[in-house]
Amino acid sequence: MFAKTWQCTCFAPQRGGACGCVSYGVGRDQDGDATGEVAGILRSFIRSGRVPVTQVGLDRNEILYTSGEHAYSLFFVESGAVKTVAHSTAGKDCLLDICVSGGIVGESSLANQTRAETAIAMMPSTVIHLAFDPLLDHMVEVDCVYLWAQYLLWRLRERQEIITSLVTADSEWRLAATLLRLARRLGTRIGGRLRIDLRITHQELSEMVGTTRSRIGHFLKRFRELGLIVPVSGRSLVVYEARLRHYVELGSCGRASQPPLR
Question: What is the per-residue pLDDT for 235?
Answer without folding.
Answer: 82
